[in-house]
Write a structure and sequence with these properties.
CATH superfamily: Outer membrane efflux proteins (OEP)
Largest sheet: 4 strands, antiparallel
Number of domains: 1
Distance between the termini: 57 Å
Strand order of the largest sheet: 1-2-3-4
CATH class: Mainly Alpha
Structural class: alpha+beta
Shape: elongated
Helix content: 55-70%
CATH architecture: Up-down Bundle
Length: 468
């Protein structure tokens, strides 16, 4: 076969992440936690949340992006089949009836039947290079489905924990609102006793209104998060309302962050695998283009019969046949073949750059997720202490205000700080979990070797929008 043979690209990724080297910041005690293959394939199970696992598994069945990816596999497989057919002979049958004559003479009738066959002998490998390219594109479509699975799993998990975070924020805000209303009643009672001015009552009422105004915004965010989850599962808005109505606490994940080695990315990241197959297809297309420099050789054969009566059509006296080789060679096309070869070489250069970009992007994503997770874990410990101190400060301020030892503004400040820190605590824990999800996503978690198999032989899996 003319043209270059594909060589698998290599990248020196090293054996450690830079964030792993810089102070061993992601450790469980003195040991670095390494992920196992099983853990990486179904990473969402580390959260020990049956709701989350069920949602992701259902998304794998009904997500529309995955349906699109499966449809693309069918297209790529069919394209491969079409390309492979060019490697084999083609044959056709024909039959006809003809009646001719002159207006004043009697007409003549004839019946014909024949068959023909042709085969291009792929001497210079143009057809085989086309098959090689189509096969690589087909494998890229299979790997793209795996990349879509990773994206779907991470999107479902991220939006699920966003939903749970907003639920917790609503509970915290309502709890603080209840406390503020109690403070308002106490302040109003103290004002009626002449202990404080009406200004304190107005300020207490304003604080109640301010906190109350946060709740509709949070409730809207809650519903919108659920809508996103429903969309990812191919459901209509409202289908998961009852299922997700009961609030749940966040899992405790601050103990460790699992990591692997950079070299795993080449095998685990489907987007890198897709880029490699696209590069392979582009290299094969160079060979297909170069084959046009050379002549094409064919073996043709035909047999035909034409008789005045249909009953005599198969008799030898009415038959003719031919068989033999032929060749064609485009010796002048005004540079078309030359430019096509250069075009395909440009596509190879482009896909090679895309592959390198995917590798570097994958490394960056992992490094970013590692440092973000580690630093957010540090931040959580400070925020936890902040929440405890603000709760103590509020309790002390409430007692001192009741005893007339401090001004009302001091009490309001303590209330605000307590609410803000509790909301920050929820936000930080959600961000930490989001970073963990990003880490597993960037490591290529969420698919197994079985997902590279073509399990969609027909169109029966395509979703329906009939929800009635």
């Amino acid at each position: 076969m003319v043209g270059p043979d594909f060589e698998k690209p290599n990248a020196d990724l090293g054996g450690e992440w830079s964030q792993q080297v810089n102070g061993k910041i992601l450790t469980d005690g003195d040991k670095i936690k390494k992920f196992s293959e099983d853990e990486l394939v179904q990473w969402w199970k580390i959260f020990n949340d049956s709701h989350l696992t069920s949602l992701i598994e259902r998304a794998f069945e009904s997500n529309l992006d995955l349906s699109v990816a499966r449809a693309k596999i069918i297209q790529a497989r069919s394209t491969l089949g079409i390309t492979q057919s060019g490697f084999f002979p083609s044959a056709d049958l024909n039959a006809g009836f003809n009646e001719s004559g002159h207006p004043i003479d009697s007409s003549n009738s004839s019946y014909s039947m024949g068959a023909g066959a042709a085969w291009e002998v792929d001497i210079f490998g143009g057809t085989r290079r086309s098959i090689e390219s189509s096969a690589a594109s087909y494998r890229a479509a299979l790997a793209d489905k795996c990349a879509t699975k990773i994206l779907v799993a991470s999107e479902v998990a991220s939006n699920y924990f966003m939903y749970r975070a907003v639920q917790q924020e609503i509970l915290i805000t309502k709890s603080n609102l209840k406390t503020q209303k109690k403070t308002y009643l106490i302040t109003k009672q103290r004002q009626s006793n002449g202990l404080v001015s009406m200004l304190d009552v107005v300020r207490a009422a304003a604080e109640v209104d301010s906190t109350s105004a946060q709740i509709p915004t949070l409730e809207a965010s809650l519903v919108q998060s659920r809508h996103t989850i429903e969309f990812l599962l191919g459901l209509k808005p409202g289908d998961l309302e009852k299922e997700l109505a009961e609030p749940k606490d966040f899992p405790e994940l601050e103990a460790f962050i699992p990591i692997g080695v950079p070299a795993n990315l080449i095998e685990r990241r489907p987007d890198i695998i897709v880029a490699e197959y696209n590069l392979h297809a582009a290299v094969a297309n160079v060979g297909n283009a170069k084959a046009d420099y050379y002549p094409k050789f064919f073996i043709n054969g035909s047999i035909s019969y034409e008789a005045p009566k249909i009953g005599n059509i198969a008799q030898n006296q009415y038959g003719t046949w031919s068989v033999g080789p032929s060749a064609s060679w485009n010796i002048f096309q005004a540079g078309k073949t030359v430019f096509n070869v250069e075009l395909q070489k440009g596509v190879v250069a482009q896909n090679g750059a895309v592959w390198k970009s995917k590798v570097l992007s994958a490394i960056k994503e992992v490094e970013d997720a590692l440092v973000a997770s580690a630093k957010e874990r540090e931040r959580i410990s400070f925020i936890n202490a902040l929440v405890e101190n603000n709760k103590k400060a509020y309790e002390l301020s409430s007692r001192l205000y009741s005893e007339g030892e401090i001004e009302f503004l001091d009490l309001l400040d303590a209330q605000r700080s307590m609410l803000t820190s509790e909301q920050s605590q929820i936000g930080s824990r959600r961000l930490f979990i989001t970073n963990i999800i990003s880490l597993y996503k960037s490591l290529g978690g969420g698919w197994s070797a079985a997902d590279l198999k073509d399990e969609s032989p027909d169109l029966d899996y395509l979703p329906t929008l009939d929800w009635n």
